[in-house]
Amino acid sequence: MTSKQPTIGISHLRVTVTEDFYIGPGRADLLERIAAAGSIAAAGKDMGMSYKRAWSLVQALNEGFGAPLVETSRGGSAQGGAELTVLGCEVLERYRHMQTAASAAIGPDLRALQELARHKSRDK
Amino acid sequence: MTSKQPTIGISHLRVTVTEDFYIGPGRADLLERIAAAGSIAAAGKDMGMSYKRAWSLVQALNEGFGAPLVETSRGGSAQGGAELTVLGCEVLERYRHMQTAASAAIGPDLRALQELARHKSRDK
Predict the structure, then answer these.
(1) What is the Cα–Cα distance from A93 to B48, expressed in whole angstroms?
(2) CA of A68 to nearest chain B CA: how many angstroms apart?
(3) Which of B91, B87, B92 minimizes the C-alpha distance to B71?
């Protein structure tokens, strides 16, 4: 995930939903990895984060949204299992859809800039 | 510009145009301020940046794109006047248009998430 290859197109999209909640690529990746790994610790490790950091991000997500997006099987901060709630799945899906929709929307301008960059570099 | 009030909607959009060039909100603001102020020093100061930092950002923009987006009246790093080239104006306009187009494209998902956040917070 921390590949150094640049992504052409939208490389960072942060959407502020309410005064207390935003979602960006890092938070979305964390939710996705929690869903896949069934554990906050494993998801964080995948992303090169300490458990403490991953856990505090999950808390920020849950508190900011005003309802849990991630639920732990032991309910506390113990390193037990974790999964996305229905709400967490919807937030993640909506974010992925926003990335797709925004990428499509910027397509014409992106291609125009790429053409300009190519021609101008060649003219030098 | 460094207001602490959160912007609802897209609060950060970075677009990677080529392997060597991306544009995001900070770079776009810098271009806009250079156009307005006619000076890299004044534009940087507006954004709380040292002249050195603003100048190095301008260099990164010019070199990354492969052609100048900003031209200084003395041609060097002296603290003289500066303006956007025709190319710089086009890059800035295209970026602003991408922000508008992407914001429109995410509208339905954003509103759905805002509704969810409002209802769920109330249910607690």
Answers:
(1) 37
(2) 9
(3) B87
- Contact call for A13 and B13, based on CB within 8 A: yes
Extract the tokens encoding A49: 């984060």
Closest by Cβ to A65, choosing from B7, B110, B117: B117
pTM: 0.89
Asked if A15 and A43 count as a contact pair (C-beta separation under 8 A), the reply is no
Collapsing DSSP to helix, strand or coil, B13 comes out as strand
Say yes or no for a CB contact (<8 Å) between A120 and B10: no
Residues contacting residue B100 through CB under 8 Å, at least 6 positions apart: none
Q: Are A9 and B16 in contact (CB under 8 A)?
A: yes
In this structure, are strands A70-72 and A82-84 parallel, antiparallel, or unpaired? Answer: antiparallel
Q: Residue A105: which of B7, B91, B104 has the nearest Cβ?
A: B104
A67/A91 Cα distance (integer angstroms) = 12
pLDDT in tens, B26-45: 999 999 999 999 999 999 99
Please report residues of A whose CB lies closer than 8 A to that of B106. 15, 98, 101-102
First CA to last CA distance, chain A: 35
> B80 in the Ramachandran plot: left (φ > 0), alpha (ψ -120 to 50) or beta?
beta
pLDDT category of residue A120 using cuts at 50, 70 and 90: confident
Q: What digits encode the pLDDT tens for the residues A75-113?
A: 555 557 999 999 999 999 999 999 999 999 999 999 999
What ipTM score was computed for the predicted complex, to two decimals?
A: 0.89
CB contact under 8 A, A10 and B6: no
